[in-house]
From TrEMBL:
Range of residues in the leader sequence: 1-26
Domain of life (superkingdom): Bacteria
Organism classification: Bacteria, Pseudomonadati, Pseudomonadota, Alphaproteobacteria, Sphingomonadales
The name this protein goes by in its record: Porin
Keywords noted in UniProt: Signal
Annotated organism of origin: Pelagerythrobacter rhizovicinus
InterPro entries named among the record's database cross-references: CHP02001
């Protein structure tokens, strides 16, 4: 899903909001393959960074999600993370993302992913309107031995965004080291709008870059350890927009 998509999210990282593929369950040779696959993921991370900005106050976060994918390419899922809004109770202590979309090959070596993501903060207790929608789209393709992704996410004018909008453009690059369980990845993102890191850090600049360089390794079955250096443009605020190294231990099943 997007690293993160939020974790895109991200991830994405996405970011993010990222869809994680799980190994298919072993089946009897006489059974037809299932038209629907269900996968899940859990993780603990040293800092929940959303597009370079910490949503956990620079502290560790617990995360997890479930994806349901149909053989047609349509999917739905949910992903959540503990957060820390600095005691303001504006967002509470939980982010819950709901999403759905379609992913599939549209040309030789070119995969399209389009969908809609809904960010929810169910534990906020000030009665503020904090939930919002964000449509997204990305293209993934081979770039030599690496896999590249370019994408965009656009949160249109909504009450939760102060009747403003936000555009996020990004590119990801990943490559596996041959004969090892190690993969290297890089990310560059650009925000134009109300969620720009410099604006969130207190300036009047509503645009800015975020970037990340990392490595991950499968250490045991579906258990994966990742280490990523994350940075953003704008003022460096400790535990919020300062450059940092994020360590994550995750399991897919």
């Amino acid at each position: 899903m997007l690293t993160s998509i939020r974790g895109l999210t991200a991830a994405a990282f996405l970011s993010s909001v990222v869809l994680t593929a799980a190994p298919a369950l072993a089946q009897d040779e006489t059974d037809p393959p299932s038209a629907v696959e269900v996968s899940g993921n859990v993780a603990i991370t040293s800092d929940y960074r959303f597009r370079g900005v910490s949503l956990s106050g620079g502290d560790p976060a617990i995360q997890g999600g479930i994806d349901v994918v149909h053989e047609s390419g349509f999917y739905v899922g949910t992903w959540g993370s503990s957060i820390d809004d600095g005691g303001t109770d504006l967002l509470g202590d939980l982010e819950l993302d709901l999403y759905g979309g379609w992913s599939g090959q549209v040309a030789e070596g070119l995969t399209l992913d389009v969908g809609l993501l809904y960010y929810m903060y169910p534990t906020e207790d000030l009665g503020a309107d904090t939930d919002y929608f964000e449509p997204y789209a990305s293209l993934a393709f081979a770039l030599g031995p690496a896999e590249a992704t370019v994408g965009a996410a656009y949160a249109f004018d909504q009450d939760a965004l102060g009747d403003s909008d936000n555009l996020y453009l990004y590119t990801d690059l990943g490559v596996g080291i041959p004969n090892t369980p190690i993969s290297l990845n890089a990310h560059l993102g650009y925000t134009d709008g109300v969620l720009a890191p410099p604006l969130l850090a207190g300036t009047t600049d509503d645009s800015g870059l975020d970037w990340a360089l990392g490595a991950s390794a499968t250490v045991l079955g579906g258990l994966e350890l990742g280490v990523t250096y994350v940075g953003v443009e704008g003022p460096s605020i400790d535990g919020f927009t300062d450059d940092t190294v994020v360590a994550t231990l995750s399991m897919s099943f």
